[in-house]
Specification:
The protein is built from 18 helices and 12 strands. The protein is of the alpha/beta class. It has 2 domains: about 130 residues, no CATH class; about 220 residues, Rossmann fold (3-Layer(aba) Sandwich), CATH 3.40.50.410. The protein is rod-shaped, with a radius of gyration of 51 Å.
């Protein structure tokens, strides 16, 4: 293998080891020669290198004195340049390995100096013909050395193998002293925030909720009506106050056919302040019809609300149209005996869109009270059985007959009340459905919660429509809150 190297190549290998201070074992391994052979080259250069100058002594004597001076100055400059370069690269290696200094920033500012130094060497050695070959050799070595030094910037202290660190306690200590990289927080995830809404002991899924509260004067009619209305208000206040701060809500009060008032024109953030407004409004309603009429109009009336339900949409469907306009995902319809509204309080314009309806009293029970036959009573009972849920029926037929006649306005406390033509609830439901601007998959979950007088129920057509809508919206229908 050693015979493959020329004399010039051997000289380059030895000079490279001397200039770069590379151990002989590493240099030998790099060029594939034995350490003994490398040492032989090294010793030969040291012992016989001076003869190169002695062999040309007689030639140098013939050179003019001015040229001799220049040659001596060039040699001195060469030696100083080699020493400076060696010191410079040794300092860089120390800073990079032990001081964590950016190599690129150091070399970038010194590159021009290296080039200038090489150019100066070249200019001096060209003037000395006998040293031209030595100059070319050293210039190439310096150039290779510069390129190799620039490659150091591609390496990082972290690339040192663990095995090497274990044998170098100083490197391990330095690494431990480095500022540790701060832990990066994981990306924010949309956490599943609480979205349960509780009302009257039950839990419902939703974060944007609208409460519809029936406040017609009819909610105070009948046995235990006042106490039941107080329970509804208490449960409503408790539900609103328990809403998560991340929730949104609105409170809409409705009565008669097309009357509403809302806490705000849009859905509101469930802040403490908004909750307090809702609580005060509910508690102000009182327990009398007069206070109910006054306090239910405190906030935004229908005139300033964005939604304007079309004609023919009345009662709970009018209120539900208003609620859906707020884009909630949950709606509670808390209703009383809506069909029992006081027709004297309703403008004639509210009947528009329902077809031909006789809004005047048909007759009074006093004119037919004495002519009730057993057949009529039996028919009234069967009719009452057909429209009343089984759970709401009384225990005996006498009570059924009494309630059936009372519902028809033919006896009892309702004997003096006028009889009116029933509203077409099927038609108003159709009007409501056709007015919806969203598909059924976007309709909020709607829960109907009825608080009715004892032995009273909604008309069959209204009940069936409400049940159908509740099931379609994945909600529920509870026909009597306090009659279980």
């Amino acid at each position: 293998m050693t015979d493959e190297f020329s004399g010039e190549q051997k000289l380059r290998i030895v000079l490279e080891s001397i200039i770069r201070n590379v151990p002989k074992e590493e240099q030998s391994k790099k060029y594939g020669v034995s350490e003994a052979e490398f040492q032989k080259w090294h010793d030969h250069l040291i012992q016989n290198g001076g003869k190169l100058f002695e062999s040309t002594l007689h030639e140098r004597n013939r050179v003019p004195r001015t040229n001799k001076k220049k040659s001596n100055g060039a040699k001195v400059f060469l030696i100083l340049s080699i020493f400076i370069n060696l010191t410079f690269f040794t300092l860089i290696a120390y800073l990079v390995l032990f001081k964590d200094v950016n190599l690129e920033s150091l070399l970038g500012s010194k590159t021009d100096q290296i080039v200038i130094s090489e150019q100066g060497l070249k200019n001096n050695f060209v003037k000395t013909s006998n040293d031209t070959e030595n100059y070319e050799l050293l210039s190439e070595i310096n150039h290779q050395e510069s390129e190799e030094q620039f490659q150091i910037k591609k390496q990082d202290l972290s690339s040192i193998k663990d095995s090497e660190k274990s044998h170098n306690p100083e490197i391990v200590r330095i690494n431990e002293d480095f500022p540790k990289k701060p832990n990066i927080l994981p990306p924010w995830e949309n956490l599943d925030l609480p979205k349960d809404v509780t009302f009257l002991g039950n839990s419902y899924d939703g974060r944007h909720v609208v409460y519809l509260l029936d406040v017609g004067t009819y909610v105070l009619d009948g046995e235990n009506a006042v106490s039941n209305f107080q329970k509804v208000k208490k449960g409503l206040v408790s539900s609103i106050l328990s809403l998560s701060p991340n929730s949104y809500f609105n409170l809409v009060m409705y009565w008669n056919l097309r009357e509403v008032s809302a806490l705000g024109p849009t859905i509101l953030k469930a802040t403490k302040e908004n909750k307090k407004y809702a609580e005060d409004w509910i508690n102000s309603l009182g327990d009398t019809k007069d206070s109910l009429k006054v306090e239910r109009n405190q906030y935004y009336p229908k005139e300033v609300l964005y939604t304007k339900p079309g004609l023919g949409i009345v009662g709970p469907w009018y209120a539900l149209s208003t609620a859906i306009s707020f884009d909630p995902d949950l709606v509670f319809v808390i209703s009383g005996n809506t069909p029992g509204f006081n027709r004297s309080e309703v403008p004639r314009s509210h009947y528009e869109g329902l077809g031909r309806i006789n809004i005047d009293p048909l007759t009074t029970s006093s004119s037919v009270k004495s002519s009730i036959s057993p057949v009529f009573k039996e028919t009234a009972k069967k009719w009452y059985y057909s429209i009343t849920p089984i759970g709401s029926l009384p225990d005996n037929e006498f009570e059924v007959e009494k309630l059936a006649l009372a519902k028809l306005g033919l006896s009892g406390q309702l004997a003096s009340q006028p009889i009116y033509q029933e509203l077409p609830w099927d038609k108003t439901f159709d009007n409501f459905i056709s007015s919806l601007e969203v598909g059924f998959d976007q309709i909020p979950k709607t829960h109907f919660l009825l608080s009715l007088p004892p032995y009273t129920s909604w008309p069959t057509s209204l009940t069936n429509s409400a049940r159908e809508f509740a099931e379609s919206s994945r909600g529920s229908f509870q026909d009597n809150l306090f009659q279980r």
